[in-house]
Amino acid sequence: MAENRKPSIVLVDDEEMILTSIRTLLMLEADYDVACFTNPLEAVEHLEKNPVDVTVSDYLMPGMTGIQLLAEAKRRQPEATRVLLTGHADKASAIKAINEVGLFQYLEKPWDNAQLLLVIQQGVERTELLRELRQKIMELDTANSTLKNTQARLLKAFL
Amino acid sequence: MNVDIQEEQLLELQRQATLGHLLASVAHEFSAPIGSILSNRDVELRLLDRIEKAVAEPAPERVKELVSSCRELARVDQIAGERISRLVRSLKTAARVPDPEWHRVNVNEVVDSALQLAKTEFRGRIAVETDFGPVPEVECHPHLLSQALLNLVTNAGHAIAGTGKITAGTRQEGDAVHIWIADTGQGIREEDQAKVLQQGFTTKPVGAGTGLGLLIVRRIVAEDHGGSIGFESAWGHGTTFHIRIPLQAKRKGVE
């Protein structure tokens, strides 16, 4: 990671107890900055201002569904990883989420901690890789246009 | 299929429908607390490991005892929590919201959730065995299929007066999946066999059955899914219902 910060995780669930459970797990087993929100609108505000590596969201919440929230997350930080953690059995909404918001993983409650840790860890790595890739592409673009300029100047000099 | 439903049956159906809807949201309500409890239990075990390591080596006997008691409780919580979460999953499968779309599902999961739910009613009295084969996914309306199987499994349970056994199995047969539900119950009298799949036939006392259960199963299997239903029964020995659901939906009307 460029600025050497801790990976940043956003957890969104209208149930405080879910947030407490996952935050405690992450604090014990990983070294992340964890921001928790019971209000999805506040989560969107956070995503607006802070770089985030992984967003884990509930599906059914007052004010906004998990899919709407993750769509907002995608618009603001497309490289960041998006995970839906839901107690809703509705597979159709999962498929919709995968297609519409580029979902990385769909997990059902009750979840398995080992699996959740792995998904978040893989999500962090994925985000880092995508950001690096974007950086490299930008560098390549710059190098490419420098080359083109040089080529043009060379042609001018010789013709 | 035109069904002439009596007012009494209609009331019973309405009551069941209301309960069904309620059940779906109740199951959903359970997800968060049980998820939290199971997760915390796991984290508590992880914490105990750390505490044991953090206490001076070698840990005093008393500390070892206390930590070991906590582990024992966490182990019991795990078993208790998983039992609740299995039930919640079965409830969610059974109480699916009606959906006009076709979905591909694993029939074994649908049969298993029906068995898990029925077990709660027949606990201790009826043993349940499964013989699931490897089956491809079936294109179906999961909420309907789930209801049909739940009807068959609870019927099987009601057919058994004392103790007995329900066996459920699945196999692929050509371009269909064959599902069977067998019980070791009283069986169906020969003279009743022709009437079993007709409307309003019930041997249950008033209030215990609407006589619509098998009719609904037949409708779901044959009309909604283009499958077939049949049974074999020997009075005194039990009944086996066979349903066959095509792998590819045979859609009604124009698509």
Question: How are the SSEs placed, and which strands pair?
Answer:
The complex is a heterodimer of chains A (about 160) and B (about 260).
Chain A: E1 8-12, H1 16-29, E2 33-37, H2 40-49, E3 54-57, H3 66-76, E4 81-86, H4 91-101, E5 105-108, H5 113-158
Helix pairs in contact in A: 2-3, 3-4
Chain B: H1 7-54, H2 61-94, E1 103-105, H3 107-122, E2 126-132, E3 138-140, H4 142-159, E4 164-173, E5 176-183, H5 190-193, H6 213-224, E6 228-234, E7 238-246
Helix pairs in contact in B: 1-2, 2-3, 3-4, 4-6
Characterise the protein shown here.
The complex is a heterodimer of chains A (159) and B (255). Chain A is α/β, with parallel strands linked by helices and 159 residues long. Chain A has helices spanning 16-29, 40-49, 66-76, 91-101, 113-158, and strands spanning 8-12, 33-37, 54-57, 81-86, 105-108. Chain A has a five-stranded parallel beta sheet with strand order 2-1-3-4-5, sandwiched between helices. The longest helix of chain A has 46 residues, at 113-158. With 255 residues, chain B is of the alpha+beta class. Chain B has a domain at 100-246: Histidine kinase-like ATPase, C-terminal domain (Heat Shock Protein 90, 2-Layer Sandwich), CATH 3.30.565. Chain B has six helices and seven strands; from the N terminus they run ααβαββαββααββ. In chain B, α1 (7-54) runs antiparallel to α2 (61-94). The interface between A and B is medium-sized, with 23 and 27 residues.
Overview features:
heterodimer; A: 159 residues; alpha/beta; 5-stranded parallel β-sheet; 5 helices; 5 strands; 58% helix; elongated; B: 255 residues; alpha+beta; Heat Shock Protein 90; 5-stranded mixed β-sheet; two-stranded antiparallel ribbon; 6 helices; 7 strands; 52% helix; 18% strand
For the sheet with most strands of chain A, the description reads: 5 strands, parallel
Question: Whole-Å distance between the termini of chain A?
Answer: 46 Å
How many whole angstroms does the radius of gyration of chain A measure?
Answer: 20 Å
- Helix content bin of chain B: 40-55%
Radius of gyration of chain B: 23 Å
CATH architecture of the domain at 100-246 in chain B: 2-Layer Sandwich
> What is the CATH superfamily classification of the domain at 100-246 in chain B?
Histidine kinase-like ATPase, C-terminal domain
Order of strands, widest sheet of chain B: 2-4-5-7-6
Describe the oligomeric state of these chains in a short phrase.
Answer: heterodimer
Largest interface: A-B, 23 and 27 residues
> Total number of helical segments of chain B?
6
Identify the overall geometry of chain A: elongated
